[in-house]
Design goal:
Layout lengths: L2 E6 L2 E6 L2 H31 L15 H11 L10 H8 L3 H13 L3 E3 L5 E3 L2 H13 L1 H16 L2 E8 L2 E8 L14 E3 L4 H8 L8 H7 L2 E4 L6 E9 L5 E10 L5 H21 L5 H16 L9
Antiparallel strand pairs: 1-2, 3-4, 5-6, 5-10, 6-7, 8-9, 9-10
Helix pairs in contact: 2-4, 6-9, 7-8, 9-10
Length: 311
């Protein structure tokens, strides 16, 4: 056996070299290497199954906090707002101004916001482009707009199509009346669900209980006078798609001075005909609507005081 200087893990030491000691040393090194590799694999798997620390995930619903803050900033704008100051955004969102400024940089970069010369903020062009994509993807416009134009021409009143979004309804399509005095609603306007014929229809076919919703589900039609606006009256019907999915409410509306009892009686049948055609074209079952229409027409034949529908 020979004594000499051996370096093990970088530390000089006296050691006797034997075949047994060499095997022990190799086993230690292999064991340490395997242990390190196993630990690294476990760490990699843990990282894959655990969200990155920089992505603050909301434990309540799985949403990402930074994304939700950005959406909250956009949601702070109301339909009547043309621009908002940084202070107004901070007040409406309850975020620190520094937080808004940081998130706004990303929103500006992708066109969701515009920063005006006076320092105020305005909704950018990207939401409009996404809205157009949303409309096209639904294929609603191709089917509904020709029917809406025809209905507006026949009745002389404005026609709107509303879709439910949470606890509000949004106007997706609109055909204005030619009258100077008319119901003023624009595409993109947000209206309540609990007032107006369109909101009542959407609630009824979303499962709302009690009256007037039970009757609405039976008649597939609802007329309101002065519910949302004291000077406005409207009549609405539901539009369904494949699988009887409720797509929205079609509404004929105008000033109370023109929307009287006779007009409403005639318009019910017209709207139900349009609803049946649209529902069939969109892949839904129009037979419940047709049953409601037949019931209305039978009632008119028994009541000569009500004029026939405009054709």
């Amino acid at each position: 056996m020979v004594d000499f200087q051996a370096k093990v893990v970088g530390i000089p030491m006296k050691k006797q070299i034997t075949p047994t000691s060499i095997l022990k040393e190799r086993s230690k090194r292999i064991g340490a290497h395997l242990q390190t590799e196993i630990q690294q694999r476990i760490a990699r798997r843990t990282r894959k199954s655990t969200p990155a620390a920089s992505a603050k995930v909301q434990p309540s619903n799985g949403g990402v906090a930074a994304v939700e803050r950005a959406l909250a900033i956009l949601a702070a704008f109301e339909p009547s707002d043309q621009r908002l100051t940084l202070a107004e955004l901070a007040h409406r969102t309850r975020f620190y101004k520094s937080t808004i400024l940081r998130i706004a940089q990303s929103l500006l970069r992708y066109g969701y916001l515009r920063h005006l010369d006076d320092g105020n903020y305005q909704i950018g062009p990207t939401p409009l482009m996404l809205g157009a994509i949303y409309q096209r993807s639904l294929r609603l416009g191709d089917i509904l707009l020709p029917l809406m134009h025809a209905l507006a021409d026949q009745t002389g009143e404005s026609v709107s199509f509303y879709s439910r979004h949470g606890e509000v309804r949004v106007c997706l399509h609109r055909v204005d009346s030619q009258h100077a005095v008319r119901d003023h609603v624009r595409e993109g306007d947000v209206l309540p669900l609990d007032r107006g014929s369109g909101g009542r229809i959407l609630r009824a076919f979303s499962g709302a209980k009690g009256e007037p919703y039970e009757t609405i589900r039976k008649e597939h039609c609802y007329a309101s006078v002065g519910e949302r606006d004291t000077e406005t009256a409207g009549i609405s019907v539901p539009i369904f798609g494949s699988g009887q999915l409720l797509l929205g409410a079609l509404t004929l509306a105008g000033p109370r001075s023109r929307i009287d009892g006779t007009f409403i009686a005639n318009a019910r049948a017209q709207l139900l005909r349009v609803a049946a055609r649209a529902t069939s074209a969109l892949g839904g079952d129009a037979s419940p609507i047709e049953v409601a229409l037949a019931s209305i027409l039978a009632g008119k034949r028994r009541s000569p005081r009500v004029s026939e529908p405009i054709r």
